[in-house]
Amino acid sequence: MSTPLTQRLYIRLWLAVVVAVVLLTLVFGWVWRLEAERERAQRPGREIILRDAQGEVLGQAVARGSRVPGQGWEFEVPLRDGQTVFVQLPRPGNRPPPVPAPSWWRPPFNLLWMFGLIAAAVALGAYPIARRLTKRLETLQQGVQHWGEGDLSRRLPEDGQDEVAFLARRFNIAAERVQALLLSHKALLANASHELRSPLARIRMALELTQTQPTAAVQAEIARNIHELDQLIDEILLASRLDASPDELGPLETVDLVGLCAEECARSEAELDVQTGAAILLVPGVTRLLRRALRNLLENARRHGGGTVTLTLQSRGDRALVRVCDQGPGVPPQYRERIFEPFFRLPGASEREGGVGLGLALVRSIASRHAGTVQCEQGPAGGACFVLQLPLAR
After folding, report:
1. What gap in Å lies between CA 377 and CA 386, rounded to an integer?
2. With the C-alpha atoms ordered 32, 34, 37, 38, is the resulting torsion angle positive or negative?
3. Which strands form 271-274's sheet, in the order they lie side by side?
């Protein structure tokens, strides 16, 4: 839908500038004319004395002259006998009277023409400025319109340092987040449907086997697949809630990180190493979310690392550091960021090892929810070492 010309922003700005200058000129002309009339009224008159040949004064008066077009100044002097005479002072020299101005340039038309010329000059000078300013706003409008129609990859130019450029930058950041969120949800749904098929197929096969071989191994396989389905659904729901409405997962509270790590290490039979100065670590957060993050890190290390799993606690400045290290083969450098993507598995990983590829993605979401970070490093013993950083409570 095209916008009417009178509703265009650059036309309205341009007209506002022109009208403002014209009004200013009119007010200035009116004030100037009043001041000129006031000054003329306060100007003292000229004393005119008329004498006869004998030097006797016939008439005397202080009169203000009036200009007679084409003839000069004229003064009115009353005589002593009651009569009135007019004294005229012609123009100096023998110059002919000036040619009268054309009718279209005589007052008050000359003032109107002057205002018109000023308005035309202002209009010609203000139009390019107003058009250049609003052209960027029109580009912004078109970009937002295309993005709203479904072109999520559309971005706005960020030229300049003014308010329009700031608005374009903020829009691009918001559009990038929305696009990433939608792509993440699409990938989550696509991968979830694929991951749900695998345990369901194994359950179906195990149920068919129970008709002929109802062994304990088959029942254990069914129980494992059901547990995997339950874990997958729980992690999908938690990931969706973290992305959609993280504030609804509970208010922040002061959490004893040392006690929480001790409980999870005892549960997963991991070693706990509390460094000097980290005997008391209090962090603001949601207890069940932090517990879930620690549990996912420990289970991931136990499942894929092998050997002894060690959890090290230390403080660095205003942040608490949690290191979960294993003695496994480690993570290649090119995959140390990708393992935090939902449903990503390292090449060669088997479904028999357990896990659905959402555990580390949840750890990153929970760390971000608590203003923290998580990353994968090379462990001191050659395995993988996951470092979780959380801000300490003030």
Report:
1. 6
2. negative
3. 271-274, 310-316, 319-325, 384-391, 373-378
Cβ–Cβ < 8 Å for 164, 140:
yes
The predicted-structure confidence for 258-313, as pLDDT tens digits, reads as follows 999 999 999 988 999 988 777 788 999 888 889 889 988 998 888 887 778 999 99
Token match 């922003």: residue? 9
- Of 81-90, 136-145, 192-201, 276-285, minimum mean pLDDT range: 192-201
Rounded Cα–Cα distance for residues 177 and 372 (Å): 19
Instruction: Report the C-alpha gap between 199 and 1 in whole angstroms.
Output: 53
Structure token digits, residue 96: 């002919």
> What number of other Cβ atoms are within 10 A of residue 48's Cβ?
17
Alpha-carbon distance of 315 to 322, in angstroms, equals 9
CA distance 297 to 75: 110
How many residues make up the chain in this entry?
Answer: 394
CA separation for the pair 361, 342 (Å, rounded): 5
Of the two residues 326 and 135, the one the predictor is more confident about is: 326
Contact call for residues 259 and 385 (beta carbons, < 8 A): no
Answer yes or no: are the C-beta atoms of 184 and 169 closer than 8 Å: no
Alpha-carbon distances, residue 393 vs 169, 180, 242, 285 (angstroms): 33, 31, 22, 9
Which domains are assigned to the chain? 5-50+57-89+104-140 (no CATH), 163-244 (1.10.287), 250-391 (3.30.565.10)
Among the residue ranges 29-38, 52-61, 91-100, 315-324, the one predicted with the least confidence is 91-100
Cα dihedral sign, 342-177-297-203: negative
- Per-residue pLDDT, 375: 94
CB 108 within 8 A of CB 120: no
Reference 59, options 40, 81, 38, 75; nearest CA is 81
Q: Are 232 and 195 in contact (CB under 8 A)?
A: yes
- Dihedral of CA atoms 168, 174, 177, 182 in degrees, nearest 10, equals -110
Give the SS3 label for residue 99. Answer: coil
DSSP H stretches of helix in 92-215? 109-148, 163-210
For residue 282, give the nearest of 392, 137, 139, 119 by alpha carbon. 392
Cα dihedral across residues 353, 358, 364, 370: positive or negative: negative
pTM above 0.90, yes or no: no
Inter-axis angle of helices 9-42 and 109-148, nearest 10 = 160
SS3 61: strand
